[in-house]
Amino acid sequence: MIAHYAHAPLPYMLGSLFCVALVTGLMPGLLPQNYRFPEHFRSIFIGMIGATIGAKITWDVLAQLPQVALSMAALTLFVPLTQWLNFLIFHKIGRYDRPTAFFSGSPGGLIEAIVSGEAAGADVRILAVQQFLRIIMVVTCLPIGLSLYYGHPVGSAAGMSLNRTAVGAEHIPEVLAVAILGLLIFRRLKIPASQLIGPLICAAIVTLSGLAVIQAPSWLISGCQVVIGASLGTRFAGMNLGRLVRATGLSLLSVGTMVAVGLAMALSIAPITGQHMDVLLISFSPGGVTEMALIALSLNANPAVVTLHHLYRIILTVAMLGVAKRRQWFPAPAERQDPGQS
């Protein structure tokens, strides 16, 4: 609730994560040794998040594809380029091991990166911190910068919301059914980050076919964020202040690099596409889908176009994570060394 009233990005996930991490840090004996949050329980909530994202893929969004073909092509270059640059930053400068550096450098897909990174042997504590810092810095610094540039608030600071009408509990059975169906099907197919991608694809199919309405009330999404954040918070036992300061510095360098690459691409293709440079910059910024769409709404731009770019960025990112996992680019380290002590 503190994070919510402080207008923090992803307040319920961040708030529960930091609260649980703080409690487990101050009371190390609170949880049993080698405690792991129940994975099957967490998967259901991740699946519902995936279902709500997949429901955003509508025919209206797909109808925008011909207008954004060039910018989408540029985004296809943006994702692997920034992934590689981030890997160099975290591995060479941050001295993280290869899996931790690779998944920390993911330019999107917070939950997917954490889930896939955990399976690949990454340090989940560092990985979660770096991914949250990426989102925090982008969704706070970019709106502030654009607000200063335009002289008025943009995004959620301007009171914008993507949910124009209140959503009740009547569609929860559909959300839960799609989430469970996606989990069961795609887990058997061994799809990377199947907890999120399976329900996402199922929800997109259901939405596009008109079989059902997939709409989750805001309190349900908030509850899912709380569970996911709390599950991540249990992994932070032993995280010291030095690591956190180091992660913040690396995140500043990483986010600055990604925004610079996005700005360069936006300036390059804006004259060709006819799209406004600021809208392209928002589309290339590796922040939260909702916040970037809200900024577009504040600028009288089409939030569907921005959402389409960010959904495509997430899909590209997850595909890259899956390729890296299948080809075993980074064997899990037998013994992990604290990068702050090397």
How does this structure look, described?
It comes from Pseudooceanicola sediminis. This is AbrB family transcriptional regulator. Keywords: Membrane, Transmembrane, Transmembrane helix. One of its GO terms (cellular component) is membrane. The chain is an all-alpha fold and 342 residues long. It has one domain (8-24, 40-326): Up-down Bundle (Na+/H+ antiporter like fold). It has helices at 2-5, 11-26, 39-54, 59-62, 69-93, 98-104, 110-119, 124-150, 172-188, 194-209, 218-233, 241-273, 277-284, 289-298, 303-326. Helix 5 (69-93) runs antiparallel to helix 6 (98-104). It starts with a helix and ends in a 16-residue tail after the last helix.
Highlighted features:
342 residues; mainly alpha; Na+/H+ antiporter like fold; 15 helices; 68% helix; transmembrane; membrane; AbrB_fam
In a few lines, what is going on in this structure?
The chain has 342 residues and is mostly helical. The chain is 68% helix and 0% strand.
Helix content: 55-70%
Low-confidence stretches: 334-342
CATH architecture: Up-down Bundle
CATH topology: Na+/H+ antiporter like fold
C-alpha geometry: globular
In DSSP terms, counting alpha (H) and pi (I) runs of 4 or more, how many helices? 15
Order of helices and strands: HHHHHHHHHHHHHHH
Spatial gap, N to C terminus: 38 Å
Report the sheet with the most strands, covering strand number, pairing sense and barrel closure: none
Radius of gyration: 19 Å
Instruction: Tell me the fraction of residues in β-strands, as a range.
Output: under 5%
- What would CATH call the class? Mainly Alpha
Tally the beta strands: 0
Query: Which structural category fits the helices and strands?
Result: mainly alpha
Mean pLDDT: 79
Total domains:
1
Keywords: Membrane, Transmembrane, Transmembrane helix
Protein name: AbrB family transcriptional regulator
InterPro entries: AbrB_dup, AbrB_fam
Transmembrane segments: 12-31, 43-62, 68-90, 132-151, 171-189, 196-214, 220-238, 250-272, 292-312
